[in-house]
Structure to design on (228 residues):
């Protein structure tokens, strides 16, 4: 079945540091890939997505590239801010499965 | 504005009581989902529905029940058979049908259930 493996957290960075959160996946078909963000006490919000190989999703300074050869979708940001502190989830949606599969989430804390 | 409304935000129940969590959406989405989130863990799928009057069990359906009588509503009942019901419950929706698998999920703000 489908699965998503995320880099274990928590991750603590200083403001303006470079961020990478690794995500790899296993899927039987050709999935779409997503990053969601969850702020404390809230639901998840879509951060970015990519629907086919070599697509790059981007939003609010975050980027991720759909790498079919390495089955990866790593999240990056060049300069994090305190307001980026949240839990980040990598997920895939497979047309065959009809539902999404999530990673376990990575907690990011950015210190001033 | 379109969105998903979950109510209440906090819910307290005594052990042995059934409790129903509300989820309403005005996004005109066909598909709706219920997830459970425990501290420090990812999301686990409880039930999902691709269309009105039809739903499927997810990975952890035991002790839960749902109904989908209207497109806008997908209530979740946590029964007394659920052994560890205290958790954060998230409802989501998405477009359904051919080509919709690249559509993201839209989430509500969750209901935190505490059973003592």
């Amino acid at each position: 079945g489908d699965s998503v493996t995320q880099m274990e957290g928590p991750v603590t960075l200083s403001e303006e540091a470079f961020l990478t959160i690794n995500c790899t996946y296993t899927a039987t078909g050709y999935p779409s890939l997503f990053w969601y963000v969850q702020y404390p006490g809230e639901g998840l919000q879509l951060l970015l997505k990519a629907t086919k190989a070599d697509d790059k999703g981007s939003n609010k300074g975050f980027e991720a590239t759909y790498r079919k050869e390495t089955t990866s979708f790593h999240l990056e940001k060049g300069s994090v801010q305190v307001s980026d502190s949240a839990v980040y989830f990598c997920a895939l949606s497979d047309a065959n499965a009809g539902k999404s599969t999530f990673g376990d989430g990575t907690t990011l804390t950015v210190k001033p | 504005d379109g969105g998903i409304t979950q109510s209440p935000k906090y819910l307290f129940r005594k052990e042995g009581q059934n409790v129903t969590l509300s989820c309403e959406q005005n996004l005109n989405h066909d598909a709706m989902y219920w997830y459970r989130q425990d501290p420090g863990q990812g999301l686990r799928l409880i039930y999902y529905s691709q269309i009105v009057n039809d739903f499927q069990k997810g990975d952890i359906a035991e002790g839960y029940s749902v109904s989908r009588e209207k497109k806008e509503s997908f209530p979740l009942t946590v029964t007394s058979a659920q052994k560890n019901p205290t958790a954060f419950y998230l409802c989501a929706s998405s477009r359904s049908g051919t080509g919709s698998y690249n559509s993201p999920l839209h989430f509500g703000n969750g209901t935190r259930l505490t059973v003592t």
